[in-house]
Specification:
alpha+beta; nine-stranded mixed β-sheet; elongated; binds adenosine-5'-triphosphate; binds magnesium ion
């Protein structure tokens, strides 16, 4: 590709609104441009990297037995009604109407559409298991789009869905995806860690997130320094040292618990940052403050972030709203009846436990049917997020923290969607059975940003070869010099013939500009055709190490090997 007419507008200055390195560099190197808040256009360099990452994903998904499909981005709202998510997903789901006033949504995820497809097309155990995947644009009206394509409102996701006839089958499908994800992120040269994630079961292996380790990550990973234990702190908020509910709490501690009213106060109470708190806690002001530790699934997580914290304050939910949110009766707050396991602690309920007066109708102690042991077992002492230095829940080692960017997520769905939408099949005995599902996502565009976040230096991006937009950057330093121009042109043809994907800087720019752009764009190898062109000598530079050597043109293919 000739750079003279190549759309890669580089920027010298750091764009003012780009806070993190990957966002800055993707703008500066001309990979992306913002079209609207959280909505980006990919320029040719960006598009090429996306495709590289997609190709790696495709190869590994196909190898793991996946079949590629392409589902519609625009989905009938009825399907979401059927699954019960139309309401539950909240404002993150973009909604629209067609000319006949029929309701549609823009796909934030595709469980509904794929389950609908499969229920119509697959009816026999003989056709199962299947794993269907797609690489497609997703829409989520994020509350706070930021960090460029890392958290955008339109983004590219690989999503896969498995349909099995048994839990053992699901386990196999899940393991196949887990392995594929490890291969994918390894090939993308990412330093990552698979961590247990929020699934509604404590310490279960029902879901894992693939986290790219990075200071700017929005998730906190708690891991053991002496074992494989690693979990998103979202699922490790409760310390295992229980104070039994029959042991009274100290007066002082009680005072602490009743005075928390804002997210900041909650954060302070738990000795964490407000951002962490927002991820881990639902704080409902329903007359009196109530702390809820949500170990939600998938969707509950979304609810928590949108419906509650959207409002940016604690004055958010009426009793009715709270009940609806938690899918339980008004006035009843407890772990029973909830869509997934939830530990609810009302501060006055804690007080009630301590004083042994649960369910009493005294002032401020008006929660109906709250029953310690049945409705909650946790007490004040549980209400501390796991901290660095705590003993690891696995029994080996101590807890350390790291920040992570969630690039992938594998999830055992079970029969949640197949039941709701009636995805059934006939088994060997002609009996109707419900399919058992898994879902598996990778943020393709987020992965690109994560790669840049981990692979750059002060001069620009340093692409790992497997995902670099081009293999080589061929730079004719002075295109007005005949010898240089001629050798550059000749090399461009030769290198292309050798199978290299070459970006050829044939621009009439100053050497300084060309080298700066070259470092910024960050292709793995730069070949500069300069003063020694007449002698058939070029300069080869390795972007990553800065190592530079002179090479005879005839020996160049060997040097590049
Ligand atoms: P997050 O916790 O960051 O909001 P999520 O858990 O909501 O992500 P999933 O529903 O698990 O996301 O979607 C699968 C993958 O899609 C994520 O692991 C992530 O890589 C990617 N992804 C999710 N939301 C975004 C977004 N707004 N912008 C870019 N990529 C995203
Ligand atoms: Mg999200
Ligand atoms: Mg997440
Ligand atoms: Mg996720």
């Amino acid at each position: 590709m000739r750079q003279r007419t190549f759309l890669a507008p580089t920027l010298r200055d750091v764009p003012a609104d780009a806070e993190i390195k990957s966002h800055q560099l993707m703008l500066r190197a001309g990979l992306i441009r913002q079209t609207a808040s959280g909505i980006y256009s990919y320029l040719p360099l960006g598009k090429k990297v996306l495709r590289k990452v997609e190709d790696i994903i495709r190869e590994e998904m196909d190898e793991a037995g996946g079949q590629e499909v392409l589902l519609p981005a625009i989905q009938p709202a009825e399907l979401w009604e059927e699954s019960g998510r139309l309401h539950a997903y909240g404002p993150e789901l973009m909604r629209l109407k067609d000319r006949h006033e029929r309701d549609f949504v823009l796909g934030a995820t595709h469980e509904e559409v794929i389950t609908d497809l499969v229920r119509n097309e697959l009816q026999s155990y003989k056709k199962l298991p299947v794993n269907l995947y797609q690489i497609q644009t997703k829409y989520r009206d994020e509350r706070r789009p930021r960090f460029g394509v890392l958290r955008s409102r339109e983004f590219i996701m690989k999503d896969a869905y498995s349909f099995d006839t048994s839990n053992e089958g699901l386990e196999q499908s899940y393991q196949a995806m887990y392995k594929a994800y490890q291969n994918i992120f390894t090939r993308c040269a990412l330093n990552f860690r698979a961590v247990e994630a929020d699934s509604g079961t404590i310490g279960g292996t029902d879901t894992h997130e693939f986290m790219v380790l990075s200071e700017i990550g929005e998730d906190t990973i708690a891991y053991s320094d002496q074992s494989d234990f690693a979990a998103n702190i979202e699922i490790a908020p409760v310390v295992t040292t229980y104070v039994k509910s029959d042991e009274p709490l100290k007066e002082k501690e009680l005072v602490d618990t009743v005075n928390i009213r804002t997210i900041e106060e909650v954060a302070d109470f738990f000795k964490v940052s407000a951002a962490q708190t927002i991820k881990s806690l639902l704080f409902i002001a329903d007359g009196e403050p109530v702390l809820v530790l949500v170990r939600g699934d998938h969707d509950v997580n979304e609810i928590k972030v949108k419906n509650v914290l959207d409002k940016d304050s604690v004055e958010l939910a009426s009793a009715e709203e709270t009940a609806r949110l938690l899918n339980c009766e008004t006035g009843y707050i407890g772990p029973i009846n909830l869509p997934s396991e939830i530990t609810v602690i009302a501060d006055h309920a804690v007080e009630a436990v301590v004083n042994g007066i649960c369910g009493a109708n005294e002032k401020d102690k008006h929660y109906k049917h709250v029953n310690p042991g049945r409705d909650f077992t946790a007490t004040y002492a549980d209400l501390r997020l796991i901290q660095e230095g705590d003993p690891s829940p696995c029994g080996k080692g101590t807890i350390q923290f790291a920040m992570g960017i969630e690039v992938g997520h594998v999830f055992k769905l079970g029969t949640k969607y197949s039941e709701a939408l009636g995805a059934t099949y006939l088994d060997e005995n002609g009996k109707t059975q419900t399919m058992i599902m898994g879902c598996y996502g990778i943020g393709v565009s987020r992965t690109v940003a994560a790669i840049v976040e981990q692979h750059h230096d002060e001069n620009g991006i340093v692409w790992p070869p497997a995902v670099a937009p081009f293999d080589l950057h061929l730079v004719t330093i002075n295109v007005k010099d005949e010898a240089q121009k001629e050798l550059g042109e000749q090399l461009y043809q030769t290198l292309k013939q050798l199978g290299y994907d070459v970006l050829f800087d044939d621009r009439p720019e100053r050497a300084g500009v060309k080298f700066k752009d070259s470092d910024l764009i960050g292709l793995p190898i730069r070949i500069a055709v300069g003063k020694k062109a007449g002698e058939g000598i070029v300069e080869v530079k390795v972007r990553k190490t800065g190592e530079m050597i002179e090479a005879e043109v005839a020996k160049l293919p060997d040097v590049l090997e």
